[in-house]
Amino acid sequence: MTLRYPDYFCDFVCTGSGCRDNCCKMGWDIEIDDDTLGYYREHGGELCERLCENIYEEDGAHYMSQEGGCPFLSAEGLCSVQQEMGAEHISEICREHPRFYEWFGDYKEAGLGLCCEEVSRIVMTHERPVLFTEKQTDEAPDDLEFDMDIFTAVRNIRDRLIDIAQDRGFTILQRLALICWCTEDINEALLDEDAERLKKISGMLAIDGFRMEIAIQAENEALTQAEDKPALLMRLFSVFERMEYMNSFGDRFALTRADAEKMLGAEKGFNKEYADLQYELENILVYFLYRYFIKCTRDFSAEERLYSAVYMTLAVRGIFLREYAENGALPDKESRIELVKDFSKEVEYDADNTDMIFEDIQQYDDVRDMLCGLCF
Ligand code: SF4
């Protein structure tokens, strides 16, 4: 098996009792895999009995009851099951979180999910462009079907999109607009299952001059259309405002026209102060592209996956910009790390919420204009 992963993948170490937002306290439904459940049932003993009492079945799968957090989290914020029985006897999801994986035959991708505060710290402090590495492992190939030609073309296109996201000759907003401008072509080629055309697009995107040309075209069009920018910002934020949140995080997206005008009035100052920190949003964009775009090999939803990466990156930038407009200063690094972690936890890790972004993209045919209008 070839395993691909970002260069920071091996830097992650769970901070356990030092974590301020322990994932074991989220109240998420934690699936208990069959092997782990079998061990608890067979092994016996007081702890295994208590574990079995707290596991319930739904649609053939088993979950740990989690109201108010995992009942096996110790007062020190550590996993008592792991302490007593070892990491090999906790559920696979507990052992792997916040790592994520995607399989295509004898090729596997791995990454770290942004909903964890330690991962957010790693991603938000990674100043150099993120690199991806591959190594060979002895894991057996996965047997879920996929089209190899489409997969190869999608992976190549994604590499080019990541190049664009990391092209520091452009501002982060220009890079977002560039991605929006390629989306329609990529989507059409993928829906036609036209691997050759995808290969051609990939080749074009590798050419610096071509990127410059579309960046100029995107900017000219956005400026010619001269959209009502406060209205565009309110439209973007309204998608996130309508979502369901575990706490008051969603209030950040409630925007009056006066709020939007204030934010846009402060944008020039924000861009100047944030100029040297753009790698933060770059890394977030790369994370969304790397993690989610490859999935369109199987579901063909290139448009939704590319635009939603832009929606979410612009939303995070919008949160920072709003704080800047309201306080006259950027939120400090610790606050930005926490905001990104909270955004991921509340939006990215909630399938109903990400579905709302997909629905918005599917509902309107002027998504590119809306997003590009916000980039210039
Ligand atoms: S959120 Fe991350 S650092 Fe915190 S307990 Fe979970 S895995 Fe560990």
Short overview:
The chain has 18 helices and seven strands. By secondary structure, the chain is of the alpha+beta class.
Shape: globular
Distance between the first and last residues' Cα: 43 Å
How many independent structural domains?
2
The number of distinct β-strands equals: 7
Number of helices: 18
Strand content: 5-15%
Unreliable spans are none
Order of helices and strands: EEHHEEHHEEHEHHHHHHHHHHHHH
Assembly type: single chain
Radius of gyration: 22 Å
Mean pLDDT figure: 95
Side-by-side strand order of the widest sheet: 5-6-1-7
Helical fraction: 55-70%
The chain-level structural class is alpha+beta
- List the bound ligands: iron/sulfur cluster
What key attributes describe this structure?
single chain, 376 residues, alpha+beta, three-stranded antiparallel beta sheet, 18 helices, binds iron/sulfur cluster, Lysine-N-methylase
What would you say this structure looks like, in words?
This is Lysine-N-methylase. Strand 5 and strand 6 form a beta hairpin. Strands 5-6-1-7 form a 4-stranded mixed β-sheet, with no helix packed on it. The protein is of the alpha+beta class and 376 residues long. It is 58% helix and 9% strand. It is globular and about 70 Å long. Helix 6 packs parallel to helix 8 and helix 10 crosses helix 18. It has 2 domains: 84 residues, no CATH class; 228 residues, no CATH class. Iron/sulfur cluster binds next to helix 5.
